[in-house]
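Before the break, one more example. Copy the sequence into your notebook; we will annotate it together after we see the structure.
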Amino acid sequence: MARRKKNTNTPVKKQENLVVNQVIIKAPLRKTSDVSEWRNALSGADNGHINRLYDLYEDLLIDGILGDAMDKRIGAVTNSELTFVDAKGKEVEAITDIIDTAAMEELITQIMHVRFWGRAAVEFDFMNGFNVYELPKKHINLNKKIIQLDAFNESGFDYEADDNILVLGKKRDFGLFLKTAPFAIYKRGGFGDYAQWLELFGMPQRIGKYNSYDTESRRLLEQAMENAGSAPYLVVPKEAEIETINNTGNGNSGQSFNDFRKACNEELLITILGQTLTSIQGDKGARSLGEVHKLVEEGKNKSDIRFVQRILNGKVLPILEKRGFPVSGGRFVFPKATKDLEVSEVVSLSEILDIPAYYLYEKYAIPEPSANDQIAGKQALPKGEDNNPPQDPKQPKDKKEEKIEQSDSSSLERSVEADRNFLIRLWDFFAYAPTLMGAASNHLTLNDADLNDRIIGRIDGSTSFDIELFDYISQNLLKALDDKPTRLADLGFTYQYQSDAFRTAQELNIFQFSAAKSLEEITQLNQLYRESKSFEEFYKKSTELCNKFNKVWQQTEYASATNTSSAAETYNRLKKKSHIFPYWEYRTVDDGRVRPEHVKLHGLILPANDPRWNKIFPPNGWKCRCYIVPKLGAEIEGVDLKEMRKRADEYLESGEWEKVDKQGFGINRALLPELFRANQMYINKFPTRAGKLLSSINYQTYRLGSYKQNRALAESNALRYEGTLENFVDSLPKENELSYFTDYNNRKVTFDLELWKKGHKPNKVKQRSPFIKSAKETLLNPDEVWITTSSNNFNEYAFIKYYNDVSIVAIAEVKEGTVYRLKTWFPVAENKVTKRYRSGVLIKKGGN
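Here is what the structure looks like once it is written out:
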């Protein structure tokens, strides 16, 4: 928390205590009030003494109509969708997630209270997550700018010196309750008067009549009435005439009060909501009139939303930014509400839009079926039947299938025919197995669109690499880089930090890992193919293997990539703020599923510059969910740092640490772009072995044309530069004294002209210099991008651009998260040697 200034006769607040916990709360003064009491309370408020007025407000809020009207306006804001976006309009998940908390709802509610009370104040607590506490309104002294310790003693805490306190309001503004108070008082008094009237006149009267000439009968009648109960009675002579006249003029004794009550309610509703028909029904109940009233209320709701949004962006954002939340350049936004789609509308949209299945499962709260679940509805079949009836590849195709194939493009026809030919070979491979006889129902069909089945369907015992499998693994893990975990205790401390070199190196590491995993999975599937004695055996075992690789292990790897990437951003954010938060605390999520070795680190506090963090900064294992909470110097008062260091050292000498170290987590992963270390890849030390393992993977594997064929499709000749290389490099933008180009991801690719010249003979410099403009375009808009096998560490990108007259190749090197540089470029000679620039792994093609 920020340091607090001492006010005159003001107690100094201890750092660890909240103001809200030190304020002396007293019950409001509740008594019978009349309009004179309201006027006296207002007069006192005008002179700076708001106690009586706010006690009156609190007492009058017992009125159901008034309370409900206030709740309706507040609810219209709290029920509206709120999000937080950065400067580019992209949602910031770390902040969006705290929006859906009770603390944020309390904050918005208190901001809305300004409308009704004229002032409001909250205190933020960041010591254990994100919390918001209301400060009593009677204790807000806008004149002296303090939060009074006692409502009747004008001394307290200087709220302007505390950046954890937000105070809203104006000195002479006492809110809408000032206008509603008289009508609430009138209404309450009217109820009291009416209750008294009912007590006197509401009970039925008994009338006894006696003969005026018989006085004894009168005495006896009175005695009888007295003994007959407490109901009022009247004893009159038979000859007397009695007439009761109502003062309403219509014979209904309660009508006057009812009119009065309705008038008070309407004034209360008009003051708060601007209308009445959305809360109470009018005499006519006309729908059109009700819609007009609804529009009036919605107008006030829009005004409230704009008011809250301005306060959040103008007042709350600076507080969050001071505490390290990633809000710089962003803003809170209330998006316009969209109408929920009906099921029929979703079905219609699915015909023209690609709607993810998970969206429908989440939207309609439908559990996602597993592989063995029976499917309901039109797709349902009796148990034991297959939704895709088997088909013998040797049998002729039916007419429907022929029609579909005829409508496809020629490329698709070739692909389908290749798969069909393989299935025929697969059938023949297992033809000798007795169990296959009459069991063709388990055979793969071309209609099966499942990823695992497509992979299995391409296995022939010698397959070396599967392009679709590599794309699936790598693209899934690339998404993990931007999928940040959110935990309430450290939401404010993740940070979108990364240099272009670091991010590119992270992606390169994912491509390396994905290639190794794809090779290992295909190798094991090939082995199953060769060892299986029947199709059933092969299909069963290969499906289990694919599920393990592509689902179970992929989920673990996704979570680890997310945590490691997030750790890098968090670490760099905390390091930049270490002058504010010089200490860090190690935390687990403490949910009963934490590993015992990580429990030993929970609550460990060390200086931010302590070298022990280079070993224990999380993540510390697969799916590790531990995190770091920054601490102010004042927040660790009483902490024995010597004992904390001893505790950390004992852990680093334990057997648990040795296991973590062997798994590749014995280092601060945030310092490295390696989401997966070389000994964590499915093929040990894969980057140095990739050249050999991927040597057969090239443009032909991807069914791409040759250099010459692609040039024939180009629309222009290569760009030439006639000036000097020095002049061109001087025209390039610079950062940290290094010139740079821009690649297709809008990332900086640095270039060192002197280093380039040293690595090239004079004839090469002369030959390649004119093509530097083409090299610039090749980086920015390549036709292909390969991770080539020409490097011993599988860390070079080959950018290729096809022109009518020549093919340009630009080679960029990625190293250790600090280097992303252009090594060279050249018009490629089209021969067997230059085939290596299109060998390895293709990560971009054309506009993809």
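The chain has a mean pLDDT of 76. Residues 717 and 803 are 5 Å apart (CA to CA). Try to locate both features in your own notes.
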